[in-house]
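Practice problem 4.
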């Protein structure tokens, strides 16, 4: 039973990480490909966000 719980926790963590990566990727695409993206109010990535994005890229 404990193994199944651990597996589910890992699956939720991965799903959460995947959603974060998608968000960061969309923000990056908007910032780099749209000149008017300054009106969107996107904040620059934090150090932690950059690290997380790099880690996710290595898993994809």
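Answer key:
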């Amino acid at each position: 039973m404990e193994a199944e719980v651990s597996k589910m926790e890992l699956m939720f963590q991965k799903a959460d990480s995947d959603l974060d990566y998608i968000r960061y990727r969309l923000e990056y695409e908007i910032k780099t490909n749209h000149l008017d993206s300054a009106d969107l109010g996107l904040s620059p990535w934090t150090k932690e966000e950059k690290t997380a994005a790099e880690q996710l890229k290595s898993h994809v």
